[in-house]
């Protein structure tokens, strides 16, 4: 796969991939994300620093939560010849010259270094296989390091993708042991964990120790129809929309910052099986977009919200 990155900003509709965007090679392309209290001069300070470092700004997106006195967030894509060699020094200099004086939280990454991702699954295959398929086609800018499952059922489906499949039995009676084994596999080895219909609750200790963000996919607009048999319950309520929500995982079950959501219309003619099928389609699309945006450094967390550029 030839690494490429985006030039233009996303399309106007949050539920779409970037519209009309072009691409260029990822070599020497940097991504700078920052968040701080809003004040005059922020854009100028960042732009001046990048220009002095010899970088050319390719695109810049910014948002402030208020006209004054709010929180400022910015995503900048820049080109700098020899970025890999200069990155560590550049990061230190930016921290000293810009981030510290302005009280910024920031992250600097290289587009040419895809994030290492682990996918956790159970028995349902639709989200897991969709991510592996999109990644193989070059639609997701990531490197899948492993699949961890608490059932062995999907091993044969994963094998053709050349990704290690690791079976770690997990249920409530052996949760502590299972999480210790999972943490041994994940800690320090991946940049992101994706829960692709992983049907186990993760403890606060696991979330704290794993050392990277986790993204979960949830049927419906949260918090509607949580728990068992959601589509049967949706049918019983006569719903007119079936949806899915992708969110970051926090200690509060299914209440983490939402990255992406989408819906499809349904009516009285749809059976429970129809709702399950349509729901799976939405789950696949929503999860893949959330993972894509995270891996392209498009997401900045703001409290229990996200800003997705």
From TrEMBL:
<dbReference type="InterPro" id="IPR036477">
    <property type="entry name" value="Formyl_transf_N_sf"/>
</dbReference>
<comment type="function">
    <text>Catalyzes the hydrolysis of 10-formyltetrahydrofolate (formyl-FH4) to formate and tetrahydrofolate (FH4).</text>
</comment>
<feature type="active site">
    <location>
        <position position="254"/>
    </location>
</feature>
<protein>
    <recommendedName>
        <fullName>Formyltetrahydrofolate deformylase</fullName>
        <ecNumber>3.5.1.10</ecNumber>
    </recommendedName>
</protein>
<dbReference type="Pfam" id="PF01842">
    <property type="entry name" value="ACT"/>
</dbReference>
<dbReference type="InterPro" id="IPR044074">
    <property type="entry name" value="PurU_ACT"/>
</dbReference>
<dbReference type="GO" id="GO:0008864">
    <property type="term" value="F:formyltetrahydrofolate deformylase activity"/>
</dbReference>
<dbReference type="InterPro" id="IPR045865">
    <property type="entry name" value="ACT-like_dom_sf"/>
</dbReference>
<dbReference type="InterPro" id="IPR004810">
    <property type="entry name" value="PurU"/>
</dbReference>
<comment type="pathway">
    <text>Purine metabolism; IMP biosynthesis via de novo pathway; formate from 10-formyl-5,6,7,8-tetrahydrofolate: step 1/1.</text>
</comment>
<keyword id="KW-0554">One-carbon metabolism</keyword>
<dbReference type="Pfam" id="PF00551">
    <property type="entry name" value="Formyl_trans_N"/>
</dbReference>
<dbReference type="InterPro" id="IPR002912">
    <property type="entry name" value="ACT_dom"/>
</dbReference>
<keyword id="KW-0378">Hydrolase</keyword>
<comment type="similarity">
    <text>Belongs to the PurU family.</text>
</comment>
<dbReference type="InterPro" id="IPR041729">
    <property type="entry name" value="Formyl-FH4-Hydrolase_C"/>
</dbReference>
<keyword id="KW-0658">Purine biosynthesis</keyword>
<dbReference type="InterPro" id="IPR002376">
    <property type="entry name" value="Formyl_transf_N"/>
</dbReference>
<feature type="domain" description="ACT">
    <location>
        <begin position="31"/>
        <end position="119"/>
    </location>
</feature>
